[in-house]
Amino acid sequence: MKIYVVGIGPGKPEYMTPAARMAIEKCDVVAGYTVYVDLIRELTAGKEVKSTAMRKEVERCRMALEACLEGKDVAFVCSGDAGVYGMAGIMCEVAADHPEVEIEVVPGITAACSGASVLGAPLIHDFAVISLSDLLTPWEKIEKRLELAGEADFVICLYNPKSKKRRSHLDRAVEIIGRTRSMDTVCGYVRNIGREGETGVVCSLKDLAENDDIDMFTTVFIGNSQTKVINGRMVTPRGYKDVL
Question: Do 118 and 104 belong together in one domain?
Answer without folding.
Answer: no
